[in-house]
Amino acid sequence: KQEVTQIPAALSVPEGENLVLNCSFTDSAIYNLQWFRQDPGKGLTSLLLIQSSQREQTSGRLNASLDKSSGRSTLYIAASQPGDSATYLCAVSKRAGNKLTFGGGTRVLVKP
Amino acid sequence: SAVISQKPSRDICQRGTSLTIQCQVDSQVTMMFWYRQQPGQSLTLIATANQGSEATYESGFVIDKFPISRPNLTFSTLTVSNMSPEDSSIYLCSVVPGGVGEQFFGPGTRLTVL
Asked: Number of Cβ pairs closer than 8 Å across A and B?
């Protein structure tokens, strides 16, 4: 059974510092990995999708890497801003278009 | 991408009653997923809803408690039956447009059971 872990569970940084969020999964036979952002009481916003054949994906200040063989992904957020404060979730899928298994999330606070 | 709406956005219900949550997507999709997010927790899949067939439930979730309908390729409902305070959660539906790529989520239904 796939298990997804995110460390740390919470993170507080001053504005301008780079954020590094970690995600690990126990079964390397994944189809893709997706990073989400969730604001309090809200739904999920998709940030980045990495296919299992890819090593990284970038979107603006966000960069996500994937090491499938070791079961790890890292989300980097450059030059953090107070608006980046949210919970970040990673999730993996075993097949195309299929269900996601989620990590517990990392709650991020960026202090002005 | 996909635009997904859910109704209601929130509700407060009495124990023993049932609530039906609607999920509407702006494009046709084969599968729709229903997740639960308990307070302070991450998301757990309840079931996968396919049009024209019975929903597939995950371990720990049963049809009598969470009946699902999928009458067409753009709509689904999830009913939370005989509710107890432990059912207080955010319920979210999601889809993968075209069957590949990103999974998109609705805004969620925040349910409080008294």
From this structure: 55
Chain A interface, best mutation among B7, B103, B112, by max A CB count within 10 A: B103
Best probe of the B interface among A30, A50, A102, A106, by most B CBs < 10 A, is: A102
Residue B101: predicted pLDDT: 85
Of B96, B106, B110, nearest to A97 by CB-CB distance is B96
Residues of chain B with confidence (pLDDT) below 50? none
Helix intervals (H) in A1-112: none
Does residue B101 belong to the interface with chain A, where contact is any CB pair within 8 Å? Answer: yes
Calculated CA dihedral for residues B90, A85, B106, B50, nearest 10 degrees: -80
Residue with tokens 């229903």: B34
User: Do the Cβ atoms of A104 and A6 come closer than 8 Å?
Assistant: yes
What is the pLDDT at residue A80?
Answer: 97
What is the model's pLDDT at position B100? 82
3-state secondary structure of B87: helix
Here the tokens at position B82 are 């005989």
pLDDT (tens digit, 9 = 90+) per residue, A52-103? 999 999 999 999 999 999 999 999 999 999 999 999 999 999 988 789 999 9
Q: Pull the structure tokens for residue A2.
A: 């796939």
Nearest chain A residue to B30 by CA: give it.
A97
